[in-house]
């Protein structure tokens, strides 16, 4: 396989390769947090605890966020969010939780659903920031524009990453950023059908890696 030299990064010895397998999703998360500006001391909501949402939690903790709350439908990714530094987790419709899930300084919408986007607008304080990270479906989607206008929200999109990749590799190499809790399975490449089946079930998996070469095995986390 031949690739342009500018796309290749040397990796330090002594760090397991699976740490760097997370460099691409970590760069997406790093870029999204950059889009929000300073998050130090701020009260943050992350909607959607898929691999990108979970990586955003880790980056927010590294950047000194004051409080991180994560919302998701499934218990397993919420447990992973707490391991990565979330202060509190919640599920939509959780009894007694609605009144405390408002007035966030910044909300990251990572579910890619209209319902998640509406929740983000409603949960963010007036004058706060909503960063849209999750990919909405192609075409028009419902959006509470009047509510966003009356609250004077700053709404921005975040698409992949730009120049953050080298910073992320350094953070992974130094141990400042550890995203291995997001890796739930490492499966031999020849069993790729099982890997894709697992990856399609967010209640059971987060990041599923294919091992090319000597067989690796980790327990589901």
Automatic annotation (TrEMBL):
Q: What domain of life does the native source organism fall in?
A: Bacteria
This protein's record includes keyword Membrane? yes
Q: Supply the alphabetized keyword list.
A: Membrane, Metal-binding, Oxidoreductase, Transmembrane, Transmembrane helix, Zinc
The record's listing under Pfam families reads:
ADH_zinc_N (PF00107)
Instruction: Give the Alcohol dehydrogenase-like C-terminal domain ranges.
Output: 51-173
TM helices/strands, residue ranges: 44-62
Give the similarity note.
Belongs to the zinc-containing alcohol dehydrogenase family.
By what name is this protein known? Alcohol dehydrogenase-like C-terminal domain-containing protein
Q: The organism's lineage?
A: Bacteria, Bacillati, Actinomycetota, Actinomycetes, Micrococcales
